[in-house]
Structures are given as C-alpha cells and as structure tokens.
Amino acid sequence: MTGDMPDPVAGALQALGDATRRDIFERILARPSRILFLAESAPVSRPAVSHHVRVLKDAGLVREEDGLLIATTDVLPAIRVYFDRLWFEASVGESWMRERFAVSRRMHWRGAEIGVAAPRSKSA
Amino acid sequence: MPAPAPPELAASAGAELFQALAEPRRRLLLEALVSGVQEVGELSRRCDMPRTLVAHHLGVLRRAGLVRFQRRHAVVRPECLATLRRYFDLALTAAAISTLPR
C-alpha cells in the first residue's frame, strides 16, 4: 500500500538513508547551524556537506533562514504517523480491533436488552 | 562551535535500519508484511517483484533488524518499529523546539 503513503514521507526516508546526511540532519536538529560550522565537524568535504544539506532541504526536512539551517516540522509528523501505523499493525493492530469490536457489540446487545440502544428515539 | 548530535537520538536507530528504509520496494514489502502476508511467493505476487528480489530485500530487512524468519515465514519485529517511532518522536520534538522564536 505504498500508494497510500504521502510522497514527502518517501522523500524524507530516502534522504535519511545516507548515514552522513542523517548525521548532518541530527546536528541541525540539535541546534540550528551554518554550513560552515557543519563542515568543520563533518567527515566529508564542504561541497559534500552542501550537497547533503541541499538534499535535506529538497526533502522538506530542513530550511534556511538568513544562512542558518533549521530543522522543520513539515514532514516529521507524517513520518511519525507512518511508523505509528506500521508498529500498530505489526503489534497490537488486529487483536486490538477485534477485541474493541467485540466489546462494542456486546455493549450494543446489552443496551438493547435494557432498552437504551435506540438513541434516535427522543421519547426513550 | 557545532553542537554534537543529541546522543539519545543518534543511538536510538542504526545506519543499517535507515538504509533499509530508504528503498521504496523494501517499504512496500514491509507494509505487505505488517498486513499479514508472510510467504515469499505471496509477497512476490502482492508486491509484483520476482521471488529472488523479494528474498534479497527480505535479507536486507533482516540484517537491519526489521524482520526475522520463523521457519520459512518472514515476520516483522514490532520492537524495531517502536524504535523508529521513538526516533521520529524525538526528532519532531527537537525540530519543534528549534523552530520556537528565541
């Protein structure tokens, strides 16, 4: 069901697949920084850092404000929801749904027994 | 002075994990797996990939810790997905803090 996945999530995950790029992203997350500062501590050349930053910007993970690189909150919520969903489906999903459904049906039947299952009738 | 990456963020998920997730076909497989498809033949049908490619990508997912094999079936490891949730939770919090006006 990748078709359901919003493209920004795919783009961001692709951008974060590179270890050096993810490291740069985490440094920007930790503190808004300038390219020069990032290049000083990165294990790659300055043009390489610029390239990685460009990819992070294109993926919507980072934006630049007066030369300062800042992590955005544009894509991260959607990525979190994506992994929330996968985790939920892989762990509790189905059994939780089944259980909830069974409980709500039981309540519905009990409601019918004691005569409160018809919320649309105003006189009840 | 450049700030070091927050340690809990860097340590919470490995390079292999992110590399595994960067490939769209592996995410497609992962999504089929969590929806309950486990057998290579059916994964191959469902994801429209040759069996050899499915086997290759499952191998990458296994080395990344996302999948384990139980007899001949691939099973997703939820604890690995929980690690990713936590990672992006932290990332979102960090990003939200850094976008606050100073």
Give a brief rundown of this model.
The complex is a heterodimer of chains A (124) and B (102). With 124 residues, chain A is mainly α.
Main attributes of the structure:
heterodimer, A: mainly alpha, Arc Repressor Mutant, subunit A, two-stranded antiparallel ribbon, 5 helices, 65% helix, elongated, B: 102 residues, two-stranded antiparallel sheet, 6 helices, 2 strands, 64% helix
Set down the secondary structure blueprint.
The complex is a heterodimer of chains A (124) and B (102).
Chain A: H1 7-16, H2 19-30, H3 35-41, H4 46-58, E1 62-65, E2 68-71, H5 76-114
Antiparallel strand pairs in A: 1-2
Helix pairs in contact in A: 1-4, 1-5, 2-4, 3-4
Chain B: H1 7-11, H2 15-21, H3 24-34, H4 40-47, H5 51-63, E1 67-70, E2 73-76, H6 78-98
Antiparallel strand pairs in B: 1-2
Helix pairs in contact in B: 2-5, 3-5, 4-5
